[in-house]
Amino acid sequence: MDTKKHVSTITELTKAEFLWIKDYLYKHAGIVLNDTKQAMVMGRLEKRLRHFGLSSYSEYFNMFCSPGFENEITIAIDLLTTNETYFFREPKHFEFLKNEILPKLPYGHTTRIWSAASSSGEEAYTLAMLLAEYANSNQWQIIGSDISSRILEKARRGMYPDTAAEKIPSRLLKKYCLKGMGEYEGFLLIDPVLRHNINFIYANLITTLPQDLGLFDVIFLRNVMIYFDLETKRRLLERILKFLKPGGYFFISHSESLNGMNTDLQCVTPSIYVKSV
Predict the structure, then answer these.
(1) Count of domains for the chain
(2) Is there a domain that residue 203 lies in?
(3) Does 4 reside within a domain?
(4) In terms of C-beta distances under 8 Å and separation of at least 24 residues, what long-range contacts does 183-186 make, across chains too?
(5) Residues 23, 28, 32, 38: is their CA dihedral positive or negative?
(6) Is residue 75 located within the same domain as residue 99?
(7) How far apart are alpha carbons 218 and 244 in whole angstroms?
(8) Are 76 and 137 found together in one domain?
(9) What is the DSSP letter of 120?
(10) Last-in-domain residue among 63, 81, 99
């Protein structure tokens, strides 16, 4: 029996409600929503209110404090922070990795890369294709982390619509992506050989990170800091850079900046940094 209420009218998100969720996101995820995002919040969360048969955003936010709704908090954060992602996004980064980093790593070295905000996995699988092709040995590992358990499950499946293949070079597409058949027609599946070397884990980057992450040769932290204020960025970088080896490389998005950050990183080229030895 369906016990959910069905409502036809949901009251608009009030200023007070917007300020509440704005404060909640900052305290629990370090995310800063500017005042122009009220309509976005209302639009992205409306379907969750309809899912539960609620008529106001206050009723929905009250659920966050109720036992048993911890997963709903994750869903809400995911809806409010979902960022566009696709294979081989910002291709100059991957050209630099292929031409300047991978050839210089010693033969037999186990290369470790962290996709620190991996979302649905496209960045991690792009890195995997390049490591499989250009690393000096077949010993490599990628860690993909995200704050959304739901989106991590999608990443672990490694299944995407055919339209997602648009940016993947044809040679790599043929070699590392399987074409869906039957009920999976219209989809592609990342080859299990690549998926075997990738581990997707839950991580809230502004809280305590797993101490068993180990050290990485390369860390990608792209399109994340746009959500944070200056102080949160500083704490985030201090926490994450502990996991980057001396001489390791750190990538941010071309739209981001480390201006005002006191780190031991040296800029190699815009958006690419190396950690001091």
Answers:
(1) 2
(2) yes
(3) no
(4) 184/159, 186/161, 186/162
(5) negative
(6) no
(7) 7
(8) no
(9) T
(10) 81
Q: How far apart are the first and last CA of the chain?
A: 63
Last residue of a domain, one of 30, 52, 81: 81
pLDDT in tens, 146-199: 988 888 999 999 999 999 999 999 999 999 999 998 988 999 999 999 999 999
- CATH number reported for the structural domain that contains residue 176 in this entry: 3.40.50.150
Tokens matching residue 235: 């704490």
Q: How far apart are CA 138 and CA 242, in angstroms?
A: 26
Range of the domain at 53: 15-81
Together in a domain, 43 and 25: yes
pLDDT at 33: 84
Whole-model pTM: value is: 0.82
196 token code pair: 């075997």
Polymer length in residues for the chain? 277
The region of weakest confidence among 22-36, 102-116, 130-144, 245-259 is 22-36
CA neighbor of 168 nearest in space, from 113, 115, 91: 91
> What is the Cα 105 distance to its own chain's centre?
26
Instruction: Name the token pair of 177.
Output: 């992506």
Interatomic CA distance for residues 251 and 253, integer angstroms:
7
Give a yes or no: residue 247 inside a domain: yes
Whether residue 159 is found in the same domain as residue 125: yes
pLDDT tens for each residue of 29-83: 778 888 888 999 999 999 999 999 999 999 999 999 888 887 788 888 878 876 6
Amino acid letter at 22?
K
- The region, left, alpha or beta by phi > 0 then psi within -120 to 50, assigned to residue 166 is alpha
Catalytic residues: 44, 146
